[in-house]
Amino acid sequence: MKNFILILQEKIEKAFEECGYDKQYGKVINSNRLDLCEFQCDGALMAAKQYKKAPFIIAEEVVEKCKNNKEFEKIEVVKPGFINIDVSKEFITTYCNQIINEEKFGCNMEKDKTVVIDYGGPNIAKPLHVGHLRPAIIGESVKRIHKFFGNRVIGDVHLGDWGLQMGLVIEELKFRHPDWPYFNENFDGEYPKEALFTVSDLEEIYPCASSKTKVSENATEEEKIKANEFKENARKNTAYLQEKKKGYYDLWKKIVEISVKDLKENYKKLDVEFDLWLGESDSQKYVKQMVEKMQKLGIIYESNGAMVVDVQEPTDTTEINPCMVLKTGGVSCYQTTDLATIMQRQIDFDPNEIIYVVDKRQELHFIQVFRCARKSEIIDKDAKLTFLGFGTMNGKDGKPFKTRNGGVMRLETLIKEINEKVYEKMNETKEIEDKEKREISEIVGLAALKYADLSNQISKDYIFDIDKFTSFDGKTGPYILYTLVRIKSILNKFNETSSIKENRILEPTEDIEKQILLKIAKYSQVLEESYLENAPSKICIYLYELANIFNSYYQKVKILQGASEKLDSNIVLLTLLKRIFENGINLLGFKAPEKM
Fold first, then answer.
1. How far apart are alpha carbons 286 and 345 in whole angstroms?
2. By C-alpha distance, which of 490, 479, 510 is closest to 572?
3. Which residue, of 348, 420, 481, 556, has the greatest Cβ tally within 10 A?
């Protein structure tokens, strides 16, 4: 089944061809002036130059060919050559009745495409904070959208579990607990099965260790020496990890185990799931093979002790520095692990596409990495590498979101705050018990959080406004859920005493009924655009507009009254709307309660 606008477009394309013009000019778009028309084609304006004819004349010829088409209620030319279109009630009703029996709402589905999505990116030994919110929410939605279209999708959290940060944590543990068996080179027994530290310990240790490597301008010589020694020891620890040195490597594995357990619990609160819990460390076994391949191709060379690959291209208008593959002494860096991870994914999954959901400020890094991956042939030449850079979530002051005392807010704290705000607003609902209100507040709070994030273009920064996002009116998650709960309530009331006799929607008799059918018909187009552009925001906008139309319909139409045939039609329409809303919010990564 084709999406609705494509069916219309094929009719117009055919008319252009029958008039002797290229069918490419028959592109149909949604009208942004519904008071004038429902759809529009401006191809005659573009065709005028090629065919040396007035656009108005071309448009009139095309419209003449379409006048007897049953799909059009109105098709007319507006100077200087626009073709305005209103579809017939019969056509729109027939299409919506077909959607009733379509599991995927008439979307054209992908087949046999493998997509790896890299999102999340938390660091071991650090708590999740608000900076981890966007990649988790965006990545989960993009993953669900790709799965909906039939792709084999692998979501990878890509842990930051390697590098100097881990060397720092281990050095601080060694400073505090020099007697631990991990640091005794002569120890030949079994290391402790239970961790000798907690997640809370780790969360305090890393910032403490990091601070020991930093000194102020007024620091004494002794303080500078101490800081350098601590950092140098951390570097040695990092090298020990890469060598898998006994004790150090075992302690690192325990740090990862404890951290991952905590991360999984926190991501569960966001309803975010990963297929893979791999980290930077998992790519290390591919580094040697990758570098050897680069050497064989003759693209890697030494520069100031580091091993680099040139990635500058003739078309670049600014200088792009070489991609550093290894630091001095053969030590891995971020580029190393990202390149080796691409190689690993190519070997393990042979993907058609790898999508990176990361901070947009990392764009230059990924330009270097992607170009280096292509040049070194560690990724299939036909595979697509996509950088999906997101903006920052800012406070009302326009700066990155912070706690009241200026610190970075933990993610679990943010979730608690937004749930509490929803609970306060729900206290106006007297007929729901307090315990149930708390449960509903968690569902609605998550919807408020995710909708607020996803309704923005991914690359744009946005202002976090807890009062606005938890409102039950306006462009918010709670408003979408309230509309869906209203629909479910009406259907439940009907189903308590009745059942439909015929599963079809009647032709609309009122303008609001046609409006809602038109909106339903456009859902597959919105889904396809969201998929092709990796843009969940399109689904957010659509659901908001659909909710507005439905709530107007609810005010104007007596849904549970009237003749049996009309009543059945209303219920079938609401059942289809329920499916669309539930599908949409599922793709965005949240669900609806039974009552609000």
1. 11
2. 490
3. 481
Q: How far apart are CA 517 and CA 508, in angstroms?
A: 8
Residues 6+ apart with CB under 8 A from 447: 477, 478, 480, 481, 585, 590, 591, 592
Strands 353-359 and 323-326: unpaired
Distance of CA 478 to the CA centre of its chain: 20
The one-letter code for the residue type at 272 is V
Return the pLDDT at 219.
87
Strand 114-118, strand 152-156: pairing: parallel
Residues pairing with 154 in the sheet: 116
Which amino acid belongs to residue 350? Answer: D
Give a yes or no: residue 93 inside a domain. Answer: no
- Amino acid identity of residue 235, one-letter, is R
Residue with tokens 């009062």: 467
Order of strands, edge to edge, in the sheet holding 114-118? 152-156, 114-118, 353-359, 384-390
Same domain, 249 and 363: yes
How many angstroms separate the Cα of 27 from the Cα of each of 8, 39, 473? 9, 10, 36
DSSP state of 198: -
Report the number of distinct structural domains present in the chain: 3
pLDDT digits (tens, 9 = 90+) for 243-259: 899 999 999 999 999 99
pLDDT value for 170 = 96
Residue 585: closest CA among 470, 464, 446, 490: 446
pLDDT band of 406, cuts 50, 70, 90: low
Rg (CA), the chain: 29
Choosing from 356, 390, 424, the residue where a domain stops is 390
| Structural contact between residues 537 and 456, judged by C-beta atoms closer than 8 angstroms | yes
Give the torsion sign (CA, 282, 284, 289, 294).
Answer: positive
Written as six digits, the tokens of 14 are 């055919």
What is the pLDDT of the chain when averaged over all its residues? 94
433 and 350 together in one domain: no
Q: Which CATH number is 439's domain given?
A: 1.10.730.10
